[in-house]
Design brief:
Putative odorant or sperm cell receptor. There is one protein chain. With 315 residues, this protein is mainly α. The chain has a single domain, classed as Rhodopsin 7-helix transmembrane proteins (Rhopdopsin 7-helix transmembrane proteins). It is built from 13 helices and three strands. It has a three-stranded mixed beta sheet with strand order 2-1-3. α5 packs parallel to α10 and α10 runs antiparallel to α11. It is globular and about 65 Å long. It starts with a strand and ends with a helix.
Length: 315
């Protein structure tokens, strides 16, 4: 392990022969702008919820925590992608690679659990509205939020610890835009049959979460369709539409990436799928939550107005 570096080969970039001289900056600029938007957009959603007492309920609490996780989820990979775009030496140490895998997937796991929790929360709110305040108490909400993060970070520790003990030798080129389990395990100069076990574990976790969310929303839609008033149906659909959109983007791309087992995709398609759940999904999340939700739009406007007032006093 000592002294070994894993070379990043983001093939969508390499195919265009990208270096500073031949055009990598054309990819650097949009990715940098997207990253800044992700950080600022998700932080605005987070602080808009935290600073508006009218949004201090379980649904918006989960949204704010999800947005906060998105900031760190993208920070685990995008800054390294940016540095690789403007550096001729596109390498990462083994320790750096393991840490990137751990934080990226731990944060992703936490988000997946949180999305599942949000689906169950909407199920209880719409299907059992009278019991909702007694079921989804502030204490339970805090426990579910903390539990999502704690479990998301603890569940990967044994896997990362095992990978860190593997001997790496031979070609050390990672054909992906960030360190991921399968590309890294293929660099190990030992039996890689554990890749299949890894795939099964990831598949079970993904399928289990998707089933819970799908069943919750099927039940929710069934109940919404029974609401007699058109206005009531529209309000209920509007509340769930943003959650459903984020769920489809996140789990759709994740499923394409981790539910294919031995199936192989062209390298360019692999990179596009990775970009969707690592970059594009976090990019659209603050847009979805702010545009689809009237209360959130009002809270964001208040937050921005407060910032303007603060700046006026500061100047």
């Amino acid at each position: 392990m000592q002294g070994l570096s894993c070379v990043f080969l983001p093939m969508t970039i390499k195919a265009a022969e990208i270096t500073f001289e031949d055009g990598s900056f054309l990819f650097f600029i949009p990715l940098f702008i997207i990253y800044i938007f992700i950080v600022i957009g998700n932080l605005i959603v987070f602080f808009a919820v935290r600073m508006n007492t009218h949004l201090h309920n379980p649904m918006y609490n989960f949204i704010s925590i999800f947005s906060f996780l998105e900031v760190w989820y993208t920070t685990a990979t995008i800054p390294k992608m940016l540095s690789n775009l403007i550096s001729k030496k596109r390498t990462i140490s083994v320790i750096g690679c393991l840490l990137q895998m751990y934080f990226f997937h731990s944060l992703g796991n936490s988000e997946g659990i949180l999305l599942t929790t949000m689906a169950v929360d909407r199920y209880v709110a719409i299907c059992n509205p009278l019991r909702y305040p007694t079921i989804m108490t502030p204490q339970l909400c805090a426990q579910l939020s903390a539990g999502s993060c704690i479990f998301g970070f603890l569940v990967l520790l044994p896997e990362i610890a095992w990978i860190s003990t593997l001997p790496f030798c031979g070609p050390n080129q990672i054909h992906q835009i960030f360190c991921d389990f399968e590309p890294v395990l293929r660099l190990a100069c030992t039996d890689t049959s554990m890749i299949l076990i890894e795939d099964v574990i990831h598949a079970i976790a993904i399928i289990f979460s998707v089933l819970i969310i799908a069943i919750s929303y099927i039940r929710i839609i069934t109940v919404i369709l029974r609401i007699p008033s058109v206005e009531g149906r529209q309000k209920a659909f509007s509340t769930c539409a943003s959650h459903l959109g984020v769920f489809l983007m996140f789990y759709g791309s994740v499923s394409l990436m981790y539910l294919r087992f031995s199936a192989t995709f062209p390298l360019i398609l692999d990179t596009v799928i990775a970009l969707v759940f690592a970059v594009l999904a976090p990019f659209f999340n603050p847009i979805i939550y702010s545009l689809r939700n009237k209360d959130m739009r009002i809270a964001i406007k208040k937050l921005l107005c407060l910032q303007k007032v603060f700046n006026a006093f500061a100047s």
